[in-house]
Automatic annotation (TrEMBL):
Keyword Metal-binding: yes
Keyword line: Metal-binding
Identification of the protein by name: HMA domain-containing protein
Organism the protein comes from: Urochloa decumbens
InterPro entries (UniProt xref): HMA_dom (IPR006121), HMA_dom_sf (IPR036163)
Residues annotated as domain HMA: 2-65
Length: 79
């Protein structure tokens, strides 16, 4: 079953992005991925498990963790 895994990956340059893309391109079950260096965010879609994606991306030597959903701030009404 296809699922989406979102990771926070410490990337500082295009070489970092290339390394992440390289390992994801070789990973079995990956249908698509998006690497956003500005957000330090990697989104992977496919028939994969979150732990397998985390381990694979960690092989690049980059600091990798699951993307935690950030709590949304309550809307502030202004009068």
């Amino acid at each position: 079953m296809a699922q989406t895994v979102v990771l926070r990956v410490g990337m500082s340059c295009e070489g970092c992005v290339g390394a992440v893309k390289r390992v994801l391109g070789k990973m079995e079950g990956v249908e698509s991925y998006d690497v956003d260096i500005k957000e330090q965010k990697v989104t992977v879609k496919g028939n994969v498990t979150p732990d397998a994606v985390l381990q694979t991306v960690s092989k690049t030597g980059k600091k990798t963790s699951f993307w935690e959903a950030e709590p949304t701030a309550p809307a502030v009404a202004t009068a």
